[in-house]
Amino acid sequence: MSPISFYKPSVPTNSIHVGLCFSSLHYLQKQELSGQKSRTFANTDDDIFAAAAHEDLVQFLQLRAAEIKSGGTLLACMPAAREDPSNLLCKEAVKNSLVGMIREGKVPASAVSKMRPAVFARKLHQVEAVLADTVDHWEKVACWNDFVGLPGFAKVEAAKQSGDEANHLQASRDWAKACAGWFVSVLGGFLMQAMRVEKFGNEAYDRSSDEDSIEKSILDEWQIRLEQTMLQDARDVEFRLDYVFFCLRRK
Ligand SMILES: C[S@@+](CC[C@H](N)C(=O)[O-])C[C@H]1O[C@@H](n2cnc3c(N)ncnc32)[C@H](O)[C@@H]1O
Questions:
Q1: Are 118 and 28 in contact (CB under 8 A)?
Q2: Is 31 in the pocket of ligand 1 (CB under 6 A)?
Q3: By alpha-carbon position, which residue is closest to atom 3 of ligand 1?
Q4: Is residue 7 lining ligand 1, measured as CB closer than 6 Å?
Q5: Is the CB of 23 within 6 Å of ligand 1?
Q6: Annotated domain spans of the chain
Q7: pLDDT tens digits, residue range 34-89?
Q8: pTM of the model
Q9: DSSP string, 163-213
């Protein structure tokens, strides 16, 4: 956790032996880009997101180069651009669960359409290009990408193989619940933020405990709906995200 933006100096110069940064570098510095189409899971090489993502990662590595001692290590991973085709079923389920809530007036469509933080899922070659631009500071130890699944999918596979239908159904339910919990914890904050902006604008306001409980009940309901939708439309589908990893040594 960083108490201030990691696009700023964060710790004293030349003070760190090992730096770790997980699942965060896809957030771009210029959040005003968020009004544009979100590129979390779609990536083209030549748009403003790609250029901003390049500059941001160069800046991040230059800042960390001032903080990490010579011989020190920086390990990072971030969501990347390749799409596992089976993810589309899960994403449809997420969309459909929200559409149900919009139809019933539980969440405003206008807020759902604004759930767009400025994030960019890079391709491996785009990260490699940044490492080439920061070669004065950093020696590349390793840089690769791989798909990372939510943990626990092996249980679903085993239950499926067991031939015991009740056991299989329970495993499918548990899996749908785990996936729904993950999606709502990742996306719920963006939905709540968009709903707050719809209601109060960008000005600071005094939150009441009523608002906390209203938000909690919306998220709880979304999670239950998503569990049901996943069980129905994406049963036993493994959700896997592409990640780029790198390990660098400070020269
Ligand atoms: C997907 S979460 C990952 C959190 C944690 N690193 C982990 O692996 O569980 C991404 C986090 O990055 C934070 N973040 C985004 N942009 C940031 C920035 N410029 N400076 C510091 N934190 C940032 C977000 O607020 C969010 O908490």
A1: yes
A2: no
A3: 23
A4: yes
A5: yes
A6: 16-250
A7: 555 544 444 555 577 889 999 999 999 999 999 999 999 999 999 999 989 889 99
A8: 0.89
A9: --HHHHHHHHHHHHHHHHHHHHHHHHHHHHHHHHHHHHTTS--PPPHHHHH
